[in-house]
Design a protein that fits this description.
132 residues; mainly beta; Immunoglobulin-like; 5-stranded mixed β-sheet; 3-stranded mixed β-sheet; 43% strand
Length: 132
């Protein structure tokens, strides 16, 4: 079976995250794999259904178009995948990419974000996960 490209979108309420100094309740995760079994779309605990060989691409969008938001790190078991930052060609827009290296049952991960003009770092306290 051909590997699938799975996009994981982080929608961040930057104003809410800065006001509360917390990403919890201000992060909405979605992926394009709901039809194959992903769960908890639109929450901070998205469970993305994956198989060995799938290519994961993490992207981000701010709810407030004038607010800065970026992913600065993704922490996950390196035996499952090793995300690296990439740039879209001819732009300064980054994304994170990784290939799933082995079958999983449930592997939690953390995303660290930079938000606001001072690029304040906030990390997920709820844990999204990859599920098999």
């Amino acid at each position: 079976m051909k590997p699938k490209e799975i996009i994981i979108m982080s929608l961040v309420d930057v104003v809410g995250a800065l006001a509360s100094d917390n990403i919890k309740g201000n992060l909405y995760l979605f992926d394009n794999n709901k039809s194959d079994g992903s769960l908890d779309e639109g929450t901070g605990v998205l469970k993305t259904k994956v198989k060995t060989g799938d290519v994961l691409i993490w992207t981000i969008m701010s709810m407030e178009p004038e607010s800065y938001a970026a992913i600065s790190n993704i922490t996950i078991d390196p035996e499952v995948c090793s995300p690296v930052t990439e740039m879209y060609p001819d732009s300064d827009v980054s994304y994170w990419q990784a290939t799933v290296l082995k079958e999983v049952t449930s592997v939690p991960y953390k995303i660290t974000f930079e938000v606001g003009v001072k690029k304040q770092q906030v990390e997920t306290r709820e844990t999204p996960s990859l599920i098999g």
